Amino acid sequence: MKMKKWVLGALGLMCTGLFATAACAETLTVMIGSEDSGGVAVKAAMDKAAEIMGIDLEYSVFPTDQFLNVLNTKGATGNLDDVIFTSYSLSDLPYNEFAELSGDWQEKITDTTRQFTVNPETGETVFAPFGPESNFGLAYNKKVLENAGVTVPIVNYSDFLEACEKIKETGVTPLYVSAQENWTPQILLLTSFTTTLMKDDLVDQLTTNQVKPQDVEGIVKIWDNVCKLQDAGILNEDYRSATHDMGKKAVANGEAAFYCVTDGAYGEIMNEYPDLIDDVGLTICPMWDNEEDAFVMANRSCRCLAVAKNSKNLDLAKEFVNTCITEEVMTTYYELSPGAVPYRDLGFSLPMSSWNEEMTALSETFPTYGDWCNALYDGKPKMNPFFGDFDLRVQSMFSGKTAEEAVTEWYTKYAEDAKAKRVEGF
User: Is the pLDDT confidence value at 119 over 90?
Assistant: First the structure.
């Protein structure tokens, strides 16, 4: 049996193969982030691909909040790992450091994900989608809602607040927020903001700096709806210091009715609370005022494989990526992190969670869009370069900022970024 030794480093963990098998095997270095519990699923799948190829892997695992900076630094210094597994905003990635990829899988990428796999400057495919296309929404405890006489989906903000009051009367926290982390509060808006931006030609005005978001009543209003959740008396008392792990536990145990998450939390709850996962569903998150703005959030696959263009093991790394997009390897991943596969007609099926099935059923009633940053406007992801520090600004509303202040600070940051990139109008 091949053994591995884990060594704690300043920025992450390094895994190195030992004994005679490692002496004769070729080795690839793989850079991954520590987020998503995908650490477990990703490494299980990568190890399976390495086993099939008869090679060794050395993992560099970096904390979520350091990964992107380290990735860009490694790229700038010509020190990238052979293979990179990333789930970050593509506008922030060093495209030109990645090699062109090709394989039978390339023509089978879904339309939802395809445009995000290419280098925008060259049109080359530089990412191989691996993780599922994702649904975000409100995880909910079925027993809690049934006890309170609440049914889903809930189609607007006022109805949501009424439902939360019914739940509160049963002695259960209606909505759990984990604002200690910057990536979780933003999901409340990621799941509900897209249709606000789809009105008229608002996106074209925003992306050319003809209008600022803080001057658009509809934008400030939906941010304010999220902000005012604090005043409604429906949140967990410790929401400012609560963590994602606490939120998962609360909704699984029925200590909270709703918790806004990505569908990646399904696999986490399944692994951590297997006896409770059947009690938890996923539905839309109605932070909008009007039912006409209701939608199902279904995003591209953002968990992708890339290969460093300057890798000393370039051909082997490309072969590794192609091996990953095979039934045995992908099944290993999807059994631990089930979801909607970002390919059509691969020739085999992969596990899909009950959450994805529930959201797919809702898409027969409501339109389906990506989150505001990755949604298509006239067929193009026009808002992708304008993320700024959206996550921090949403989090700031749970630390005392008003909606208008948060939106203004979001604009200030994305305008700085757009100016640096010489975007027209900035």
Answer: no
One-character DSSP codes across 59-126: EEEE-HHHHHHHHHHHHHTT---SEEEE-S-GGGS-GGGBPP--SGGGGGB-HHHHTTSB-TTT--B-
Torsion of CA 289, 293, 298, 302, to 10 degrees: -70
Q: Of 113, 132, 114, 111, nearest to 123 (Cα)?
A: 114
What Å distances lie between residue 76 and 71, 79, 95, 119, CA to CA? Answer: 9, 8, 11, 17
Res 21: pLDDT: 43
The answer to whether 127 touches 306, Cβ cutoff 8 Å, is: yes
- The CATH architecture one would assign to domain 4-133+301-352 is 3-Layer(aba) Sandwich (3.40)
Place of tokens 């008396």: 233
- 128/49 Cα distance (integer angstroms): 15
Using pLDDT thresholds of 50, 70 and 90, give the confidence band for residue 42: confident
Tokens read off for 46: 């990568």
Evaluate whether 4-133+301-352 and 134-299+357-420 have a shared fold. Answer: yes
Nearest to residue 91, comparing CAs of 395, 321, 388, 303? 388
pTM: 0.74
- CB-CB neighbours of 326 under 10 Å: 18
| Residue with the two structure tokens 């970002």 | 342
- Both tokens of 241, joined, read 């210091």
pLDDT digits (tens, 9 = 90+) for 322-336: 999 999 999 999 888
Residue 89's pLDDT is 56
Domain boundaries defined on the chain: 4-133+301-352, 134-299+357-420
Vertex 141: Cα angle to 160 and 254 (nearest 5)? 115
Q: What is the pLDDT of residues 201-242, one digit of tens each?
A: 999 999 999 999 999 999 999 999 999 999 999 999 999 999
Q: How many CB atoms lie within 10 A of CB 6?
A: 10
Instruction: For residue 204, count other CB atoms closer than 10 A to its CB.
Output: 13
Tell me which fold the domain 134-299+357-420 belongs to: D-Maltodextrin-Binding Protein; domain 2 (3.40.190)
pLDDT digits (tens, 9 = 90+) for 333-380: 988 888 888 998 899 989 888 999 999 899 889 998 999 998 889 878
Residue 77 in tokens: 């210094």
For residues 307 and 360, what is the distance between their CA atoms, to the nearest angstrom?
A: 32
Count H helices and E strands in the chain, helices first: 17, 13
